[in-house]
Structures are given as C-alpha cells and as structure tokens.
Specification:
Layout lengths: L7 E7 L10 E8 L16 E9 L2 E8 L9 E7 L11 E8 L5 E10 L5 E7 L15 E7 L23 E8 L5 E2 L1
Antiparallel strand pairs: 1-2, 2-3, 3-4, 4-9, 5-8, 5-10, 6-9, 7-8, 10-11
C-alpha cells in the first residue's frame, strides 16, 4: 500500500534584537507525518528535514535545506519541498539562485501565488522539485544539503513565515515536503 503524507513542520524563530535585522533566521524542522500515514517506518528520528531562511542583506535571504534522511535505510529522498511567501507580495518576482548543493542534482524551482499543492495539504507559493530517481542519480536525501540565495525588494526571513492556503486534508503548514521511498520496503511515499 502506498501511504501518502506530507511532512508537517515544527517552528522555531530566532530573531536578532535591535533595529538591524541582518542574519536573523527562521527555521522549519519537518518531522511530523500526516496522521493518515503516521505508521510509515522512517530510518531516522525526526526532524527529517530542516529549512533555514536567513537575512544576509537588504532584500537578500539565504535558504539552506538539510536532509537527515537515513542513507542506509534505502533511497529515501525529497520529491518536492514547498514554502509560503508573504501574501501581500508577488512570489513570481523573486530570484532564487542555487549555490552549493551536496550530493543531489539542483532542483527545478517554481514560483506562483498559491500555485502548488502539497499532496493532502494546502497551496504553497514556492516549489523545489528534486530528482525522483535513486540517490546515486541526484535524489535529495541522506545527509544532503543545498544553499540558495533569494533576492527580492524588501524581503527578509519573515517573508517566508506564512501558513499555506487551505486545500483540504491535514491543515495549514508553513512548509511541507513529499518524501519518496520510505518504509520498510522503500515503497511508500510520505
């Protein structure tokens, strides 16, 4: 049986006090499976994925994606990772430039207001679509990490700290990911 879930998020916000906001961060730890497939076996303890948005300058945010999926457990890997953007701003004008990516092929990146639906969840504004083939072929899993520079007028780390727009299923989240090849026989999707 192919269990479907989107990994929900835990939220931690670290802000630098004072008028200057450089190097303030918002971190999303993804480690809560949707309730309908909570019994899917994972190779490691949560959080399985972490995304950190850090303001590095005026209108510039660094995004670091990190995987803690167990490489010895099979070919667990991220198919899609979804984020929200300030609903008063247009996500299509963001420039997202890949930096260093360890062990995975650079994802395709799409931007559009409430344009991307995470399975069983709401709609998101930014979608990172990773390779869906085995780890050796570029899948984002194991202990992989990826860095991106995001530029846009007036954006900060808080520009990405919004809930998804309702789309059925499990509720609103700040981020969600679709992970392939989880479970004891690596046949589940989570």
């Amino acid at each position: 049986m192919r269990a479907k879930l989107i990994v929900g998020i835990g939220f931690l916000c670290v802000l630098t006090l004072g008028a200057w906001r450089a190097n303030a961060s918002v971190t999303f730890d993804l480690g809560t499976p949707f309730p309908d497939s909570a019994a899917v076996a994972w190779g490691t303890a949560p959080p399985w994925l972490t995304a950190t948005f850090t303001t590095t300058g005026t209108g510039t945010v660094e995004l670091v994606l990190q995987s803690r999926l167990d490489p010895s457990f099979g070919t667990e890997g991220v198919k899609g990772w979804y984020f929200n953007f300030d609903p008063s701003l247009d996500p299509s004008v963001l420039t997202i430039t890949p930096g260093t990516i360890s062990g995975a092929t650079a994802p395709s990146i799409s931007r559009g207001e409430d344009a991307y639906k995470a399975d069983g969840d709401g709609y998101y504004d930014i979608w990172f679509a990773f390779a869906t083939t085995g780890v050796a072929s570029g899948r984002f899993g194991g202990n992989d990490w990826a860095e991106f520079t995001i530029t846009g007028t007036g954006i900060t780390e808080n520009s990405f700290d919004f809930f998804s727009v309702g789309g059925g299923g499990q509720g609103a989240y700040r981020s969600a990911a679709h992970v392939l090849s989880v479970g004891g026989e690596n046949g589940d999707s989570a």
